[in-house]
Amino acid sequence: MAGCCSVLGAFLFEYDTPRIVLIRSRKVGLMNRAVQLFILAYVIGWVFVWEKGYQEVDSVVSSVTTKAKGVTVTNTSQLGFRIWDVADYVIPAQEESSLFIMTNIIVTMNQTQGFCPELPDKTSVCKSDSDCPAGSTNTHSSGVATGRCVPYNGTLKTCEVAAWCPVEDDSNVPKPAFLKAAENFTLQLGILWVSCGPRAVTLLKPQGWGLL
Ligand SMILES: *[C@@H]1O[C@H](CO)[C@@H](O)[C@H](O)[C@H]1NC(C)=O
Ligand SMILES: *[C@@H]1O[C@H](CO)[C@@H](O)[C@H](O)[C@H]1NC(C)=O
Ligand SMILES: *[C@@H]1O[C@H](CO)[C@@H](O)[C@H](O)[C@H]1NC(C)=O
Ligand SMILES: *[C@@H]1O[C@H](CO)[C@@H](O)[C@H](O)[C@H]1NC(C)=O
């Protein structure tokens, strides 16, 4: 008990302070200043100026949102008078970090499932049914061959296919592009960096869009 009280007393009734020693020596003083100078040079030169430690660095985690704006009209014999807005030419409506704008189309009216002559090419032009193996198909065919050779037009016969008929004729691509006005559409890009908050950039008349 007495031992415990003396320890407590020693702890309560004491005060300590570091002692400062002043050494008047050129060698020690110079060394001290050199170390201080080195630390100062490191902080200012390396940390601030070289490494730019005062700048905020963000990892490249970001998202890009896109939005197209613009409306155009077409008046063709095939489709008649038609308005094209964002819902018609942006396909699919939403994509991650990208966007697709339709600029040209090949219209094939009233397609239904049925049997019709294939477009003429090296493999589909035929003289008799024996040129058309039933069930055959290849990368260029629009459907599955039925095994019959049928007239395509007045002069030409091609293999008949089971397909969406009439088959799409992609030999005449509309030129200039059907939706040429797309070159003047407005494209809005919103870029969101994780720690910097949203930044929106609007691009008017983007250059270098390839038209089909
Ligand atoms: C579409 O074109 C046709 C023929 O060129 C014309 O008669 C018709 O008035 C046009 N329609 C509109 C809405 O401009
Ligand atoms: C498509 O079908 C509609 C209605 O049945 C008809 O009026 C039009 O002429 C057809 N178009 C073609 C290219 O066959
Ligand atoms: C039949 O089609 C072929 C290929 O498209 C074409 O070269 C030919 O002139 C056409 N014949 C007639 C009579 O339309
Ligand atoms: C797009 O805009 C430019 C300048 O306003 C104009 O000269 C050009 O004809 C436009 N393009 C289309 C397809 O409307």
Automatic annotation (TrEMBL):
Its UniProt entry gives the catalysed reaction(s) as:
Na(+)(in) = Na(+)(out); K(+)(in) = K(+)(out)
Give the subcellular location: Lysosome membrane
Q: Which InterPro entries match?
A: P2X4_purnocptor (IPR003047), P2X_extracellular_dom_sf (IPR027309), P2X_purnocptor (IPR001429), P2X_receptor (IPR059116)
Q: Which UniProt keywords apply?
A: ATP-binding, Ion channel, Ion transport, Ligand-gated ion channel, Lysosome, Membrane, Nucleotide-binding, Receptor, Transmembrane, Transmembrane helix, Transport
Chief subcellular location? membrane
Q: How does it sit in the membrane?
A: Multi-pass membrane protein
Write down any Gene Ontology CC term. Answer: postsynapse
The portions of this protein that span the membrane are 34-50
Recorded GO molecular functions are: ATP binding; extracellularly ATP-gated monoatomic cation channel activity; purinergic nucleotide receptor activity
Q: Name one GO biological process term.
A: response to ATP
Family according to the record: Belongs to the P2X receptor family.
Q: Which PANTHER family does this one have? A: P2X PURINOCEPTOR, P2X PURINOCEPTOR 4
Name of the molecule in the record: Purinergic receptor P2X 4
Q: Which organism is it from?
A: Myotis myotis
